[in-house]
Amino acid sequence: MADFILTTGDLAMFNPTFGSAIVTVIPGNLTGTGKGMINKKMVCVDGDEKTVMVPGCPYITASHPIPGVGMLSIASLGGDQKAKRTKSNHKPVLLKGSTFTAKFQVMAPAQQPTPAGPIPDPVPQYSGTGTFITTNMRVKGT
């Protein structure tokens, strides 16, 4: 099924719920490395999603209400987000699609207040989802 091709500057929007963690999300920017251009912006190809890294995102959990900080990234694309036929520089182009799997890597753990002192969140990483927002409303790939 045809869908809009992603280009440089398009956004990876992360959903705030990452399992038991609630993350204050910041959108990530895509940078295209494909040969083609749409609206004077480079197209995104397979592998470009791996460069999306969003550090400095605060988070909390129900048991750890003192905020910690981590980094958002894209763990894997959804099955409808990589073109099967449309390629640029011999690589499949990336499509808007539905949802991708996201990863939240804890850098500074959230804390649980106790009379004996704060207890850090023991979970080093959380999984979540996200979607792409594109400015390309003209060119589709399959």
Please write out the topology.
Layout: E1 3-4, E2 11-14, E3 17-18, E4 21-23, E5 28-29, E6 37-38, E7 41-42, E8 53-61, E9 68-76, E10 82-88, E11 91-94, E12 100-108, E13 111-112, E14 119-120, E15 125-133, E16 140-141
Antiparallel strand pairs: 1-16, 2-5, 2-15, 3-4, 4-8, 6-7, 8-9, 9-12, 10-11, 12-15, 13-14
Order of helices and strands: EEEEEEEEEEEEEEEE
In round numbers, the mean pLDDT is: 97
**What characterizes the major β-sheet?**
8 strands, antiparallel
Radius of gyration: 17 Å
Overview of the structural elements:
This protein is mostly beta strands. The chain has one domain (3-135). 0% of the residues lie in helices and 49% in strands. The protein is built from no helices and 16 strands. It has strands at residues 3-4, 11-14, 17-18, 21-23, 28-29, 37-38, 41-42, 53-61, 68-76, 82-88, 91-94, 100-108, 111-112, 119-120, 125-133, 140-141. The strands form five sheets. The protein has an eight-stranded antiparallel beta sheet, with no helix packed on it. A two-stranded antiparallel ribbon has the order 1-16. The protein has a two-stranded antiparallel ribbon with strand order 6-7. Strand 6 (37-38) and strand 7 (41-42) form a beta hairpin. It starts with a strand and ends with a strand. The relative contact order is 0.30. The model has no long low-confidence stretch (mean pLDDT 97).
